[in-house]
Each structure stands twice: as structure tokens, then as C-alpha cells.
Amino acid sequence: MGKTFYVTTPIYYPSDNLHIGHTYCTVAADAIKKFKKLQGYDVYMVTGSDEHGQKIEEKAKEVGVSPKEYVDKIVADTKELWSLLDIEYDSFIRSTDPIHEKNVQELFQKLYDKGEIYKDEYEGFYCTPCEAFWAESQMDKDHNCPDCGRPTHMAKEESYFFRLSKYRDALLEYYDNHPEFIQPEFRKKEMINNFLKEGLDDLSVTRSSFDWGVPVPFDKDHIVYVWIDALSCYLSGLGLGTEDESNYEKFWPAQVHLVGKEIMRFHTIIWPALLMALEIPLPEKIFGHGWILFDDDKMSKSKGNVVYPEPIIELYGVDALKYFLLREFSFGNDGNFNKEKFMNRLNSDLANDLGNLLSRTVSMIEKYCNGILPEPGESNEFDKDLETLAPSIWEKNEKAMEHFQFSVVLDDIWKLVRRTNKYVDETTPWIVAKEGDQKRLDTIMYHLAESLRVISILIYPYLQNTAKEIRNQLGLPENISWEDGKVWGLSKAGNKITKGKIIFPRLDTKKEMEKLEKANTALFEKRMKEKEKDMNEEVKGKDLITIDDFDKCEIKVALVESVEDHPNADRLYILHLKIGEEKRQIVSSIKEYYKPEDLEGKKILVLTNLKPAKFRGVESNGMLLAAEDDEGNLTIASTLEDIVDGASLG
Ligand code: ME8
User: Please, which residues bridge with residue 117 across strands?
Assistant: First the structure.
């Protein structure tokens, strides 16, 4: 069996459309998948959606749809986004997938049967968005959640508890024996100092205050804590519990879970402890990356600073976004998103360096060699320099990718891109052409094309489309082999070179920044409006009644036998009615519209099962029906043809 590699993204909450921060992690996981695949690994990638929990339940309630309906739309948008970005995931696990819900129940039952879970009562500070209880000692003086920084509130509930406390020493020992388990290294220190040093409390692993979750199999009043539900998606995503568990057997344990820094605690403490309790092997590595900030602040809808990936992709392409995300930020640390930085990267690295290198190479080969890749002649020192540099990059790339240092990887590749551009300036082919030295010209052209061939292999995991386009223009086969990037001289003389599109046009930074801002705001507003529309439909829905509601009203035809003035009110009449066998009186404010003789002997419609009420001391038993327009004209409702009093409406 070949080498396997299992990589996961977090299982995102579909509480809102995903933004550039979520895209970051998924693009990184995808780059790892493509890189490892190129290296010959059998790779499996799981992503998905974490659909249960109070936060989603509340969001759905806000717009008046069921939680499942609410998440379905966002999950569809998410899948579309991943497809737009050519994300090669193998499985998209939804925590509402029935097979996953079954797995959660079975894992929970197993923990309970083993005595790892027990029932007790919990009182403490609760963070609704994180669905976590916190001890006083873990919070700041304002009782804000140590994970997300939002306020907590006091909550008390009966709960099942996982014996997390008993795993503290085992975890520390595991970290010692597996120094690469938590990456980057400084995150391990954070986990130990912030959580493990003081000792661990047992973990509340059920909720009874809301319903949207997987029920505890033996106690239907409780649902399973959303984090057990979410984390075990990494197992369900491999097909655990299905008829064919071969992928689970083949790929578990994972080589790496990529997660944002704020969920490291769940992945480096709770998840391994649960796996230890379940006697399931632990993942090899948890990598905690930093946040993409916006002007040093966390992106959030309420702050209105959310950056969506879709407009960037639409305006500048998938590869521009991927390049920026992976090159600009150092993967383990926080970084600032800034449109100007984005435009600058695009102009300098993509348009000026790579785009320019491709277009001038292809143009020159067309001009000097009739669009056919020539046979190179003898190499001089400049040529030799390139011949050694190009195939040396892979080694650096492999090293940097051991720690997922995408920015280092791309920086090294761009050293080759720039070196090759410099090679053009050094070798001055236009002068060589003037001198008529075709052999030298052939050698230079070959070196340029060959360097681009190597570049096309190196960039493939990060910039797949660009790699393909370069290969296309150079007449290279679509198939890419990592090994081919280690060797100089594999381009075949005689290849047809075809000038294609400009891969990255130069942009007017100022104009484009405005354009991007506008497109992002438009999408933000569109999404807000869609939500409002859902809400309005819900409000309208509230005004509608069912036939059962209508059936509750008893409306009958009544004969007005006599009408008298109310003794204590100028505007009221007392109407004496006969409704079949029954006699009753109602008080009505129609005095200004009708004289008693207009009404006496007439048949009108009356709501007869209305609770009796007193008007200025006189009892009214029912209500006559009348229509009134905006100008205050009023007419009493009656039937079209005559019908016996006591007849029911319906
Ligand atoms: O935490 N910068 O889901 P989530 C970088 N359902 N990354 C960001 C980011 C930003 N500004 N914002 C979000 C959850 N992310 C749980 C996970 S896993 C078993 C359950 C990324 O939708 C980052 O990877 O809140 C973070 O960890 C993830 O989105 C959180 O997504």
C-alpha cells in the first residue's frame, strides 16, 4: 500500500456565508492536498459543516425558518464557493448527515458504557456562541469568553460530563512523546500554560436548554454537546459507520487537522482525550493558524468589515486570491487583510514577475524561433546558474511544506521567477538577435522555456490554473510530475509554443480598490436583503391562519328584533337579536351610521362565540360584522340572499 495522507479543514458553522478567513484555511488544506498528491501520496481531504447547536437554532429562528432549511442554503453556497476555488475535497461531511448522527450516538454510548461519561449538575459561566462553560479563573474580570472574547452569562443545567480531568497527565505525556503534535511550537506552550497547567475540569458534554442537536441515545432530554458532534465529523467524513469503511481504515489517523488558533483547545485537549477514552489512535498533527484581521480587528458581520471571496475571484480570478492568501500571511500568525496590499501583490509578483516572464518568453520564441522550441547550444555561466537554481527549489519547498510554510514556499519559487527575469536582462536576446547569433538565441530561449516548465510544476499546488495555462502556452503535457521538477532539460525541442492570454494583467490600484470595495459591499447587502426577505415572508406567514384557526370562529345569521339607545353612551346601541332559538343582545358603536328603524327586522352577521364583555355597564354577547373603508364609511355585513336566522357561516 502506498503512503497515505489525511488532511482536514475545520467543520465550519453555516451560521452565515463563509468569508475570506474560512477560505484561507480551506485554500491551505487544498494546497497541502495537491502538494502531497504530487509527491505521490494517496491523499484524502475532508471539509464540512457543523450544523447543530444553539447559535444556528437562534439564527434560524431570527429569519423564521427551520434550522435545517437555514443551513441548507448556506451549505449550498459554501459548496459552490469551494468548487469555484477548485478545492479538491474528497468528502463534505454535514453534521446533520444521518450516518454521522448515528456515529455520534454510538461514540457517546460507548463513552457512557465505559464510565467515561457521568450525569451531574452544572452551574457556571456559559458562552452561547462557543457553547462552552467557563470557570471564573479562566475569564477576564468582565467574564468574557476566553476563546472568542464575547460576554458569558450564568447558566445552570443538568448535564452529562466527560471525565476530561483524568486525561491531563496523559495529554502532557503525549505532547512530550510527540513533539510535532501541536504546531506551531508556540501554540503548544499556550495550551499548556493556559489550560493544562492548572489542571483540567471534567467537561459538560450535553445540553438540555435547546433542541437542535443529536439526542443522547439513552436520555432524550439531552442533546450531545456540539463539539463532540463536530470533532467526530473527522471520522464520519472517512465513512466510519457506513457499509464501506475502507477509507476510514486506510486514512485514519489524520496526518493533520488544520484549524484556526481559537479552536486549538478543542483539537489539542478535548479531541485527543476523547480519542484516548474511545481507544482510537490520535491524529499526527494539529496545526493552528493565525487570523486574517481587517485593520487589526477580527472580521465580523456586525462590524461590517467582512470580506467575501466571491467578488475577488470574479474580478481577479481564483489564483490571484489563492496567491495572496498563501503568500502574504505567515501561516501560523495573524495578518492584516488590506486591499492595497492585495493589488500590490497582484501587480508586482503576478503581473510584473510571473505574467511578464511568460509573455515575453512566448513572444520571443515566436519572434526568434517561429514559435518552435529550439535545441539549446552550449551553456555559459548565466545559463548554468539557472540550470542549477531551477531544480534546486523543490528541495526547499519540501522542507518548508513540512511545516506548511506556504509564504516561504512561494517566496522561494518567486526567487526563481525573478532570477529568470534577470536572466533575460543579463543575456539580452534582442542584442543577440541583432548580431544574428541564432545558436546563442536558441540557448537563451530554451533556458527561459525550461525555467518556466519547472515553475509550472512548483506552483501547481497553489496556482493550478496558472500552471496549466503556462504549460498550455509552452506546449507541455497537462500531466504534472513532481519528479520532473527536480531535473533540468526535460523540455523537448520542437514543442509548439503558442501565445495565449495575459495571465495577470497589470491593474490600476486605486481604481481597482474602489471597484472591489463596491463589489464586496454589493454582495454584503444582497445577502442581508435575502435574509430580510426570508424574515418578511415569515412575518407575512404569521398573518396567515389555517382553516383550523378559522373554524374556531362561530359566525351566525341574526335577526335584529329591536334596537335601543345605550343608557350611558351616546354612540352606542343595544341590539336585541334572535339567532335561531336563542335570544341575545350585543352592544355596538354604529349609532352614527344607522337609525334603529334601518336595522330592525334586518338580518345581520354576528360572531357568536366571542367572550361576553361589558360596555359602560351593559353586557354584550357577540359582535356584529361590518366593513369600513379608509374614509370611515361603514356598512353592516349581511348575506346575499335571505336565509333563516341561526344559519352558520363557514
Ligand atoms: O469554529 N482568519 O467553526 P467556524 C482566519 N464549527 N481564519 C478564520 C477566520 C479569520 N478571520 N475566521 C474564521 C468552528 N476562520 C467550528 C469548528 S471543527 C471540528 C469545528 C477559520 O465556522 C478558522 O480556520 O467558526 C477557524 O478555525 C474556522 O474558520 C472556524 O470556523
Answer: 162
Q: Are 239 and 123 in contact (CB under 8 A)?
A: no
Give 553-591 as a 3 state SS string: CCEEEEEEEEEEECCCCCCCEEEEEEECCEEEEEEECCC
Q: Ligand 1: does its nearest atom lie under 6 Å from the Cβ of 147?
A: no
Q: Are residues 85 and 228 in contact, defined by beta-carbon separation less than 8 angstroms?
A: no
The whole model's pTM is what? 0.81
Instruction: Kindly state if the Cβ of 117 falls inside 6 Å of ligand 1.
Output: no
Going from the Cα of 10 to the center of ligand 1, the distance in angstroms, rounded, reads 6
The best mutation among 263, 265, 404 to test binding of ligand 1, ranked by most ligand atoms within 8 Å of the C-beta, falls on: 263
Quick one: how many helices (H) and strands (E) in the chain? 24, 26
First to last CA, the chain: 74
Sequence-ordered list of residues with C-beta below 8 angstroms from that of 511, at least 6 positions apart, any chain: none
Beta bridge pairs of residue 219: 216
| Cα–Cα distance measured from residue 138 to residue 145, given in angstroms and rounded to the nearest whole number | 8
Q: Residue 512: CB within 6 Å of ligand 1?
A: no
Provide the 8-state DSSP code for 109.
H
Contact criterion met (CB below 8 Å) for 88 and 255: no
pLDDT digits (tens, 9 = 90+) for 139-182: 888 899 887 888 888 888 789 999 999 999 999 999 999 999 99
Q: Is the peptide bond before 477 cis (omega within 30 degrees of 0)?
A: no
Quickly list DSSP for 158-184.
Answer: EEEEE-GGGGHHHHHHHHHH-TTSEES
How many angstroms does the Cα of residue 129 sit away from the middle of ligand 1? 12
Q: 306-360 pLDDT, tens per residue?
A: 899 999 999 999 999 999 999 999 998 999 988 999 999 999 999 999 999 999 9
Query: Which residues, listed in sequence order, are joined to residue 605 by a DSSP beta bridge?
Result: 557
Q: Whose CA is nearest to atom 19 of ligand 1?
A: 231
Q: Which residue has the cell 471534567?
A: 202
pLDDT digits (tens, 9 = 90+) for 489-533: 999 999 999 999 999 999 999 999 999 999 999 998 888 888 777
Question: DSSP code of 44?
Answer: E
CA distance 341 to 344: 5
Q: How far, in Å, is the centroid of ligand 1 from the Cα of 298?
A: 12
Residue 410 C-alpha cell reads as 512561494
Residue 2: all three cell numbers together = 502506498
Q: Establish whether residue 22 lines the binding site of ligand 1, counting it when its CB lies within 6 angstroms of any ligand atom.
A: yes
**Ligand 1 center to 23 CA (angstroms):** 10
Spatial separation of the C-alpha atoms in residues 438 and 440, rounded to whole Å: 5
**Contact criterion met (CB below 8 Å) for 474 and 495:** yes
> Which one-letter DSSP state was computed for residue 151?
B
Cα–Cα dist 287/332, whole Å:
8
Q: Whose CA is nearest to atom 26 of ligand 1?
A: 260
DSSP assignment of 596-631, as one string?
HHHHTT-EEEEE-SSPPEEETTEEE-SEE-EEE-TT
Is residue 56 lining ligand 1, measured as CB closer than 6 Å?
A: no
Separation between Cα atoms, residue 331 and residue 406, nearest integer Å: 7
**How far is Cα 91 from Cα 238, in angstroms, rounded to an integer?**
7
- C-alpha 133 chain-centroid distance: 24
C-alpha 371 to ligand 1 mean position (Å)? 49
